[in-house]
Amino acid sequence: MGYKILAINPGSTSTKIAVYEDENMLFSKSINHSASELENYKSITDQFEMRKEKVLNTLKENDFNKEDLSAIVGRGGILPPVKPGAYLVNEVMVDRLKNRPIIEHASNLGALISYEIAKEIGVNAYIYDSVAVDELIDVARVLGIPEIKRTCLSHALNSRAMAIKFAKENDRDYKDMNLIVAHLGGGITIAAHKNGQMVDVVSDDEGPFSPERSGRIPVKKVVDMCYSGKYTHKEMLKKIRGKGGIVGHLKTVDIREVEKMIENGNEKAKLIYDALIYQVAKGIGELATVLEGDVDAIILTGGIAYSKNLTKKLSDRIRFIAPVNVLAGENELEALSYGTLRILKGEESYREYIEMVEDLNFN
Length: 363
Hints:
The structure is a single chain. 37% of the residues lie in helices and 19% in strands. It has 363 residues and is α/β, with parallel strands linked by helices. The protein starts with a strand and ends in an 11-residue tail after the last strand.
């Protein structure tokens, strides 16, 4: 009998789950949450009980006994900076995510749901490669405004999983490679992996815009907008995350719809599409300098990487840096499960989450 692992990945409008036996997926489901359903909850944390019950119901629908689980793993939420790999979910982590979240984000529910179900059946709950994984080198933290601390928020889970997978498929050790991984999804982040460490990133507010994010924007003009009296604090944040990027220009977050617009002769759509590719290429170029040009490979991943046209155009811009490899898809449930499997097999160790004094001053 193999290890059976439940992986839970809460998103803004869905909760994706999968059950694996070792590296074999037994079943998966994306549980969708309509806007009308979610508007009944004042905060994301308030959605906890509803989402948990839907996860348990999905197990029942698939005739799977939760008592057979060896472990449960949730998408790591937005915590103060953490190390890569696995953390055991404990009361300290639960308290932080539930009562003092850094940002209200659906991924925070991953640990909460996992912990409650795991307690019921007497197994461990983990998070793996949290959004808040931070391995930045010191020189990458310095900003021009001393009062602002640069921290690392990225698609660490999928970025590291695809880097490790690429190394394995090429009979290399991830810790011996220099890689640039671009996660192309609703948000876009790019990471420089140097000998197994994510030494720097271009986060979703530091580089290219994406379907739902504004990306890097001129600070002076943003300050002017903030003090114009036209927008509330909440409205400005929404312009940066949620209503910025492609959706702000073209009223869609679906890159396939943008490509259809272009096919139908929409010149504005073509300009925005080309600008997205241009900015992602710039971000990858930035990180090539971090690695001093010593780049073994560039990996394009995430949902947008399914677009052969987009990845072809992007590859044409960046292949002078290093060979470009497309590993499309978010692969997050697989990454969560495989990471937890390595813990259960004793191939990796997990950390205990401890909230340090400096964490309380995180900004």
